[in-house]
Specification:
Length: 510
């Protein structure tokens, strides 16, 4: 692993900072993460729902899609594991490489380890590191460490977000329902929920898949961030990088130091030396070396050395913090002071008998208390009911009665209105004129008014009348409102003028 190629700043972070680091990586490489996710999960979603529809078990499709989350999670995990080293894979590479290998690990995460609360933290150990099952078990214990609880809390948070998003997407439709139809729409929706038709089950499965597709990559990224942070804490990646930078700086300055040393030594006088003698011939050590040793030189590692180094690393007590303690114990040991001072057996039997008697007495007291409560219930039960609040009487059933039909207008509206006015019934006269004016306006404009239309609605509908009838209708409405709501009866002259003008405009003169 080339940790010097990491594109993130390695430093000790808190667990929640590591979670934020993982989600930030998902946001940075969103296209590389969601493109293969949609390419894989969308056909699987369609096939699973089609199969369950054929079996008449659509509810099982949502369960299967939820159960296959660890399989889908390998896609964003593969992308992040490459992108963190600066190599962002394309969609085809991700689909080809992400699901390769790791069969035993995926079998575990799809069966007995499926409900693990730290799945996002532990999957990188099995999928990215590999190794034997025993080595992976040790690595999981070490990597989990103090981050296990944070990983479990992260899972709970994302589950709540996923449920809220699914419910929110389902309730989004009610934002487009007019307010006057909202209650009816909610009642109809509740009826559909109880009946659970096929289209509603498919819609619920689609909403759950959409919420999972949006949030599950972030959950995987959060676990990967925790994994990187634990590797940094355990293996000291940040310290190793600091030493590598120091080595690079020293190597860059080595040439200058060597040149300065050579120039300094040239200033010293040369010393006499013995004449060179021919060295005795000896076989070259490289002749006995294997071709690999001759080719790689000091960098050559014999076969098996890497495996031995791995075994030594796993044997490190910091990686596997266990130890075996051995100590000698005498076969016939003397009883200690506590055993010597132990009370005789009969005293223990006496204590057990006293405990049994006390238990029986307590149960008898409890039974007596229950009996007293039942016997005195007629005294304290009414008081307790009064404390609970007044009894709400059951409302009487609603009675339905058809509204009486409106009385038809008389043939002679003008004459009838004058007779009502002359007999001291001005409100009835103005009401008759108003009803006749509204009926004439509706007949002239062709506009239908709702039952119980207000004066304002009638005035808006009268805008389609010509100028003269519109003014006459407005005058009728104004006088009627003054009499009906302000109890202001117009004088006789005003009523006669209004009636004459309305009769002309609305054709009441025969």
């Amino acid at each position: 692993m080339r940790i010097d190629a990491l594109t993130v700043v390695l430093r000790p972070r808190s667990s929640w900072e590591a979670v934020e680091l993982g989600t930030a990586l998902v946001r940075r490489h969103a296209r590389a993460v969601w493109a293969p996710w949609l390419v894989l999960t969308l056909p699987v979603f369609a096939l699973v729902n089609a199969a369950m529809y054929a079996l008449d078990m659509l509810w099982l499709a949502a369960v299967l899609m939820w159960w296959l989350k660890p399989l889908f999670a390998r896609l964003p995990l593969f992308v992040l594991s490459r992108a963190v080293f600066g190599e962002v894979p394309c969609t085809r590479t991700t689909l080809r490489e992400a699901l390769r290998g790791g069969g035993y690990a995926m079998l575990a995460y799809l069966t007995w380890r499926r409900l693990s609360p730290a799945r996002a933290l532990l999957m990188p150990v099995d999928v990215l590191e590999g190794g034997t099952p025993a080595q992976a078990a040790v690595r999981r214990r070490v990597v989990a460490g103090p981050a296990y609880g944070i990983a479990a809390l992260t899972l709970i948070v994302f589950l709540h977000f996923e449920a809220a998003l699914t419910l929110g997407l389902g309730m989004l439709a009610f934002l487009f329902v007019p307010e006057e139809h909202l209650m009816g729409s909610l009642q109809q929706a509740w009826t559909w929920v109880l009946e659970s038709p096929v289209w509603l089950q498919l819609l619920e499965n689609a909403l759950a898949w959409a919420a999972t597709s949006l949030l599950e990559p972030f959950h995987v990224g959060a676990g990967f961030g925790l994994y990187l942070n634990r590797r940094t804490e355990i293996e000291g990646w940040d310290i190793e990088l600091a030493f590598r930078r120091l080595r690079a700086r020293l190597q860059a300055a080595a040439g200058v130091l060597t040149l300065a040393l050579a120039l300094g030594l040239a200033a010293f006088p040369a010393r006499a030396a013995d004449p060179p003698r021919p060295a005795p011939a000896c076989p070259s050590p490289r002749a006995a070396e294997t071709p690999l040793v001759a080719q790689f030189g000091g960098d050559y590692a014999p076969p098996g050395s890497f495996d031995r180094a791995v075994q030594r690393a796993y044997a490190d007590p910091r990686v596997n913090p266990r130890r075996v303690l051995q100590q000698w114990k005498p076969r016939e040991r003397k009883p200690d002071a506590r055993e010597r001072d132990r009370a005789p057996a009969w005293l223990g039997d006496l204590a057990a008998a006293v405990g049994t008697i006390a238990e029986v007495l307590l149960w008898a007291l409890a039974a007596l208390a229950v009996g007293l409560l039942a016997w005195t219930a007629r005294r304290w039960w009414p008081w307790l009911r009064r404390l609970a609040g007044p009894t709400i009487a059951k409302p009487a059933p609603a009675r339905e009665q058809a509204l009486p039909a409106a009385e038809p207008l008389p043939d002679d509206v003008v004459g009838t209105a004058r007779r009502l006015w002359a007999t001291a019934q001005p409100r009835e006269a103005l009401a008759l004129v108003y009803r006749a004016a509204v009926e004439a306006m509706v007949a002239a404009t062709g506009r239908a008014l709702p039952p119980g239309a207000t004066e304002a609605q009638c005035l808006r509908a009268s805008q389609a009348l010509p100028e003269a009838p519109r003014r006459a209708f407005a005058a009728v409405v104004r006088l009627w409102q003054q009499a009906a709501y302000a109890d202001r009866i117009p004088p006789d002259a005003a009523f006669d003028a209004l009636l004459a003008d309305a009769a002309v405009q609305f054709g009441w003169i025969r």
